[in-house]
Amino acid sequence: MIGVRFAASSTWTGGSHPVVAELAAYFAGTLTDFTVPVEMRGGSEFERAVWGEIARIPYGEMRTYGAVATALGDPGAARAVGTACNRNPVPVIVPCHRVVGAGGKLVGFGGGLPRKRQLLELEARVALERAWS
C-alpha cells in the first residue's frame, strides 16, 4: 500500500485490496485494529518517529501533540509533531486523528476538522459500546 487519501465523496469503490475491506470495517465500527501491512515510505527520521509513536495510540484514545513530542524526547516539538501528522501517508490506519491540541482541543488535520471529529466520535462510540457489552 502506498497511501490513503480523503476524497470528497464516500461512494468510491476501491476494488478488492484487503485495505479496502479493513477501512470499510473500521468505518462500520467492527474493526479497531488494522492488520494490513504498512510500509511508511519517505519522511524524515523525526516524521517516521512521530508516525511510529502515533501508531501506538490505542483505539478510542487521544494524545496531545505535546505528549507525543515528550514521548519522543523533545517536549518543545509539538508543532513539529503536528507537521509530521499532516504528512502521514496513511491517515486512519496510522491514526493521526487521535492527536489533539492541549486540553483535547481539535486542531489541525489534513482531512479537515469535521472529519477528525467524526473519526474521534466513531471511535468513542464503538469503545463505549464494547465496554458496556
Quick summary of this structure?
The chain is mostly helical and 133 residues long.
Tell me about this structure.
Helices cover about 45% and strands about 5% of the residues. It contains five helices and two strands, in the order H-H-E-H-H-E-H. Strands 1-2 form a two-stranded parallel sheet. It starts with 17 loop residues before the first helix and ends with a helix. The model has no long low-confidence stretch (mean pLDDT about 90).
Structural class: mainly alpha
Which range does the strand content fall in? under 5%
Q: Radius of gyration over alpha carbons?
A: 15 Å
The largest sheet, given as strand count, sense and whether it forms a barrel, is: 2 strands, parallel
Which outline best applies? Answer: globular
Low-confidence stretches: none
Helix content, binned percent: 40-55%
Order of helices and strands: HHEHHEH
**Overall strand count:** 2
The main sheet orders its strands as 1-2
Helix and strand layout, with pairings?
Elements: H1 18-28, H2 45-55, E1 63-64, H3 65-71, H4 78-86, E2 99-100, H5 113-132
Parallel strand pairs: 1-2
Main attributes?
133 residues, mainly alpha, two-stranded parallel ribbon, globular
